[in-house]
Amino acid sequence: MKLYASQLNPPPPLHFPKNPKPTKSHHFTPPQLPPKPPKFKLAPKNTTVPSHLLLEAPPKWVLLGGASLSFGLLLLLFGPQQAWAFGPDGPLLEEFWDNMRRYALYTLTVSTGALYTVFQPIVELLKNPITAILILLIVVGSGFLVSQVLSAMVGISDFSYKYGY
């Protein structure tokens, strides 16, 4: 037996009073709405659930946060390791290589986060054909402008500035 959306329990209809009694105050108080039904209901076995009631994929920020957290926990599992230094094995050298590792991870996470923040709105704009063409024109025009400026700076182009005196 298939279960259709019309067979699920619909929310109760709103009941408004037909003739509200006037009050002494001049403020209108709206009638109380019944509580909203839950979004997801359990259906009996052997039923087909409509597609609009299925769970959606988690947002991108949840996936990115989970990946970052799991990567951080993976780094914590390795714990403090001895650095392979070419000099004496003093504590300052160990601390130096530990700081170098942390700075490299910091640089990697900050740069990937900045790139993600910059390119996410552009990817959203690429879904519309008109804005995709505009973005393509902006990227090509910017590349052409940068190439012209660099060729003039290096002296590859035939451009020469003639002074007026």
UniProtKB/TrEMBL annotation:
<comment type="similarity">
    <text>Belongs to the ycf33 family.</text>
</comment>
<keyword id="KW-1133">Transmembrane helix</keyword>
<feature type="transmembrane region" description="Helical">
    <location>
        <begin position="103"/>
        <end position="123"/>
    </location>
</feature>
<keyword id="KW-0812">Transmembrane</keyword>
<dbReference type="GO" id="GO:0009536">
    <property type="term" value="C:plastid"/>
</dbReference>
<keyword id="KW-0934">Plastid</keyword>
<feature type="region of interest" description="Disordered">
    <location>
        <begin position="1"/>
        <end position="41"/>
    </location>
</feature>
<keyword id="KW-0472">Membrane</keyword>
<dbReference type="InterPro" id="IPR008470">
    <property type="entry name" value="Uncharacterised_Ycf33"/>
</dbReference>
<feature type="transmembrane region" description="Helical">
    <location>
        <begin position="130"/>
        <end position="156"/>
    </location>
</feature>
<feature type="transmembrane region" description="Helical">
    <location>
        <begin position="61"/>
        <end position="83"/>
    </location>
</feature>
<protein>
    <recommendedName>
        <fullName>Uncharacterized protein ycf33</fullName>
    </recommendedName>
</protein>
<dbReference type="Pfam" id="PF05421">
    <property type="entry name" value="DUF751"/>
</dbReference>
